[in-house]
Write a structure and sequence with these properties.
With 158 residues, the chain is α/β, with parallel strands linked by helices. The protein has a single domain, classed as Phosphoglycerate mutase-like (Rossmann fold). Helix content is 29%, strand content 20%. The chain contains four helices and six strands; from the N terminus they run βαβαβαβαββ.
Length: 158
């Protein structure tokens, strides 16, 4: 059994000082939301064998706000298609039982829907989606078969 957790970056500014989407920072709400989600992750006792993250500024700042995660940054997560994200998941070392990806929509929504055959059509900023996959090898992660076990939206936290 494998567990995949997807965490979308927190709320960001509309523009960056450079004009590049990649360089957008979190706004005040995003900084607060990332701290709230970090506390929720700790309260739930979630642990990850591997955290892979987009190197986009808003993702880096989200991870800093969460606290306690030591990600490996993977440039392929930024602006990734569903297929590219699935390739990342499928190429994960099988010693990893619990994988977290931190990144962006629409790829995360589409990956979650593909793996679970469920409607996952709106993953808001700073939301966490946890999927249980009845597989022994990450290379076997594919359409359907996964079970959505947690969908935590920061606006629903007390």
């Amino acid at each position: 059994m494998k567990r995949l957790t997807l965490l979308r970056h927190a709320k960001s500014e509309r523009d960056s000082s450079t004009g590049r989407d990649f360089d957008r920072s979190l706004n005040d709400r995003g900084r607060a939301d990332s701290k709230r989600m970090g506390q929720e992750i700790r309260d739930l006792g979630l642990k990850f064998d591997l955290v892979l993250a987009s190197p986009a500024k808003r993702v880096v700042e989200t991870i800093e706000g969460l606290g306690g995660l030591l990600p490996q940054f993977d440039e392929h997560i930024y602006d990734a298609s569903t297929r590219q994200l699935l390739d990342i998941v499928q190429s994960t070392n099988d010693q990893v039982g619990s994988l977290m990806l931190v990144g962006h929509n629409p790829g995360f929504e589409r990956l979650a829907a593909r793996l679970t055959d469920e409607e996952v059509d709106d993953i808001p900023t700073a939301a966490l989606v946890e999927i249980e996959l009845p597989i022994d090898h990450w290379r076997d992660a594919d359409e359907g078969g996964g079970r959505l076990i947690r969908f935590v939206k920061v606006k629903e936290l007390a």
